[in-house]
Amino acid sequence: MEQKIRRDRNIGDNLRKLRLDYDISQEKLCAELQRRGCDIGRSTYAKYEAGELNIRASVIIELKKIYNCSYDDFFEGLNVNI
Fold first, then answer.
1. 24 near 75, Cβ under 8 Å?
2. How many CB atoms lie within 10 A of CB 19?
3. Angle at 49 between CA 45 and CA 53, to 5 degrees
4. What whole-number distance in Å separates Cα of residue 53 and Cα of residue 35?
5. 24 C-beta neighbours (distance < 10 Å), count
6. What is the per-residue pLDDT across 29-59, written as a single tens digit (0 to 9) for each?
């Protein structure tokens, strides 16, 4: 079960940037994630980008493979000290 998060650091903007840089829609991205074993629907993924849900580590691992990027790209620009 997915849980709503309290406001903390949000990687949603970075998720959106990576997706747009890769030039893929949320629907196509979710289809690829599902093909790779991540049961993610578009509405759930949209909530990740909006910062309304925590993203699972397994999804980040698959996104890293899809985008051929580093884990740092997911956390770029986030202030280490709150």
1. no
2. 19
3. 70
4. 22
5. 16
6. 999 999 999 999 999 999 999 988 889 999 9
Our measurement of the distance from residue 48's CA atom to the centroid of its chain's CA atoms, rounded to an integer in Å, reads 6
Residue 78 confidence class, pLDDT cut points 50, 70, 90 = confident
**Tokens describing residue 70:** 């580093």
Q: What is the 3-state secondary structure (H, E, C) of the chain?
A: CCCECCCCCCCHHHHHHHHHHCCCCHHHHHHHHHHCCCCCCHHHHHHHHHCCECCCHHHHHHHHHHHCCCCHHHHCCCCCCC
CA-CA-CA-CA dihedral for 45, 47, 51, 56, to nearest 10:
-50
Question: Domains along the chain?
Answer: 12-68 (1.10.260)
CA distance 9 to 36: 27
